[in-house]
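Final report, closing paragraph on structural work. Over the funding period we assembled a curated collection of sequence-structure pairs, and we close with a single example.
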Amino acid sequence: MIPRIHKQGSSTRGLLNYLYGKGTREEHVDPHLVASFDSMAPDPGRDPSATKEDLQRLLDQPLHLLDEAQRPDQHVWHCSVRAAGTDRILSDEEWGDIARRIMAATGIDPGGVDDAGCRWAAVRHADDHIHIIATLVREDGRRPNHHRSGQRAQAAARLIEADHDLHRVAPGDGTAAKRPTSAERHKAERQGRDRTVREELREAVRRAVAGAATEQEFFDRLKGAGLLVRTRVLPSGDLKGYTVALPGDHNADREPVFYAGSTLAPDLSLPRIQARFDTTAVASAPDSNGHQDHPPQRVGPSVARRTTTDAAWAALVVLDGGDDCAAAAQIAATGEVLDALAKTSALYTRQELRQAALVFERASRSHTREEFLHGQQLRRAARDLALSGPALGRGEDGATTAMVIDMVFFLVTAAAHWHGRKQHAQQAAAAQEAADYLRAAYRTAAGMPMGALYERGQRLALPLRHKQAAHLRQAMPDLAEQVLAEPGWYALAATLADVESAGYSPAVLLTEAVGRRELGTAESVSDVLVWRLRRMADLPADASAMTQPDNSRSLQSDGRSPGPATSRADQPRKAR
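Its predicted structure, as stored:
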């Protein structure tokens, strides 16, 4: 159940005309009163002898206790209360009880020992919601104490949900982005837009932030996306803020409608964006590799996705054991990676990745302030993705897309667990929803590359497959039989053969891959191990790039195939 406090107004009659009218799209059905301050207010909806003027005079009567100069200009308080789409249809009596509890919680009509509260009425004109109108002058002529009425109403709604057995909404913490107003939603409908301008701008600005290294790069990306951009500069020459507008979105005076970054989302204000660029201490961060600048280097889509996979693994380690500020930075940077992935993805995964990025946006903010020096490796990965351009979705591009989605799925799941431990209910729910979209995107992306590996695995000699199965039972005895029964086992067998052909010990590398992180959340354990092994051994993600291994080669006593002194197996392993 969602209570929403609307902007205060000055016309009681104007709001009553809307509540008892047909609606902007003829959507109001049987408008009628379900509750009022004294339970005796006239109902112009169902009482033929009552008029909207009668109800207006009753609600506004306390205004006349004040001299005209003392009357507040914005005296009309308006709150809508909406049930979830999955909730049962509530009766008028139940909605009346809900209205009284909301008004008591906000302090506008406390009830009980205080019988001098404000006058109000609750109108229902649809099955799933009511509107409450109140006059913000008490019966004794004083103003009500309704400070933070929105938060009070939300707290009351959580109790109402439990008492009426309704859908439980995760409690908020004030870090959510501002919702579009009803005027913005109606404007979008008139213009035939799927989303409001505010929502479109929020997504565009987040994509511009993803991996950006400087203010100039950020603003260049905004302009490159076709947005109108204005900046405010202090007398010192420093930037104070920025606003953006969508071309073609005008007000009544035919002027562009500009939105400040802070009104799009709390973390899109200029100071919060500038904090992402603060890399003065990056060289001392554990995941920085000494990088303190952001050279504008372009890499191919497949290389960018491999880089992102490595960065995601490093971020997982921080989420598992880092401090809160470092973890918050990694989660915020994960949002940038998702935005960059969605922007550069091939068509067949674009919709799922875009939805994952949109819903994870809520998980990227909490009251734990980020220390972005800890998230620079992920931010650089997001920048590589953005600079690499669109992936074609074929060959190595398509296979590394499946690889990175697999790893980012685990990262987003870890973010959900972190938020859950911190009692961040809305953020945890958003991260879990994003993980569901990533799971769907992975199924789409992995079909072709895993299919090619599956075919290669089926063609392996039976003795070689038996040997790979023995490696599997040694490395993960508890899950081995489950993996052997999965369709992906043949792809894993082919990968283990590739690992051996590349000069690594399949048993050693498989043991390391299994021990890196839990596998319980994986839909297919064999798929996860395939991508981990191919990344750890620097194997091409696309199976067609591998030649069929020679299964007849003998192995040395240490498990490696014989080869030149400069083979990869003889070189020091990189930390991954």
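The two ends are 46 Å apart (CA to CA). The longest strand covers residues 129-138. We thank the funder for supporting this effort.
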